[in-house]
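User: Could you check the structure of this?
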Amino acid sequence: FRAGRYQRRVEQLRAQGLVAGKVAAWMADDPRGDAYLAGMLHSAGGLYIWRTAAQSGKNHPSQARIRRVLRDHSCGFGVLMARAWGFGDEVAAGVGFWPQPERAVPEHIPFARMVHLSVVATMSADEGRTGTDSGGLEALSRYDGIACSAQATLSRAEQCWRGEAPAPRVEDAGQVVQSAS
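Assistant: Sure, the predicted structure tokens are below.
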């Protein structure tokens, strides 16, 4: 869809969604399952907000207001969209709670955490392409050996950004990699 003056940001979010979906699918070892959908749709609410902001006519909202609406409502809009499209509880939990997976209901925490890790790796790898670092590897390292291999997850995201299609998931020698689902 078109988002006028915000099209560049929308394209960036769309690309992040595609990579996050691939990383989440890799983590779940399920190429086109719920993890792929939740990773891909993690930013769907944000896409809707940017598009709505672009269609506001002469009264464009300020960047600060858009950021505030994104922070407060993008996950909620994403859940509404996932539900409207008929996706189940797990996809909705991944979309809605990826920023704070521990706030999901207990049975969905591991899945929401996996989506969180896929998004963090995706954003970190994207920043790495431009030479910036917001601490993504450090954030992933907190889960190293528990829910993921931090370096392998980041490497997978980097490969996805480059458009490479690595072989199906194989545990790295000497590293514990457990499915988060």
